[in-house]
Design goal:
- It is a single chain.
- It is elongated, with a radius of gyration of 19 Å.
- The protein is about 75% helix and about 0% strand.
- By secondary structure, it is mainly α.
- It starts with 11 loop residues before the first helix and ends with a helix.
- Keywords: DNA-binding, Repressor, Transcription, Transcription regulation.
- Pfam families: TetR_C_24, TetR_N.
- This is TetR/AcrR family transcriptional regulator.
Length: about 200
Amino acid sequence: MARTTDGDGTPVPQRLLAAATRLFADQGYDRTSVQEIVEAAGVTKGALYHYFGSKDDLLHEVYARLLRVQQERLDAIADADAPVAERVRDAAADVVVSTIDNLDDASIFFRSMHHLSPEKNKQVRAERRRYHERFRALIEEGQESGVFSTATPADLVVDYHFGSVHHLSTWYRPDGPLTPQQVADHLADLLLRALRAP
């Protein structure tokens, strides 16, 4: 099967994902049919089922691609040769910017995760847990070295920050007063202030 079916050079899987993301964001996962996705992508149902076994697989990939990018970026930040407070701030800001940059993906996921099959749901939870555990390890590194206060358990610190991140899709607007980087800087600074040892 050819990877593209028109002259724009965009591979079929990316076209399907782009169409699905737009439709899921606009009208909801459960109200979007496979037929609407393939028509929007300009491909056949056969093409969709060649690359994605089901609509469920498309939903999973919408979130998984964002999580992959965020995990790669967090790993690079965590492994950098910089003071732990700087790495935590960079990681805290990065997840905000990357979430805002992919706000449709994030909002689709939080609205529609319950539609995933139990197996896919478990897989996504494991992927998210890996990300959160790497983030928590950075907090713990700072606490163990005396840079951060140990007054609040690292797990709660992580939940606090990611609660803010997960809420972004409900209020952030690209035409609002704050840029993604400004929001990221504010939230990262809040986290650092909460963590600072007295």
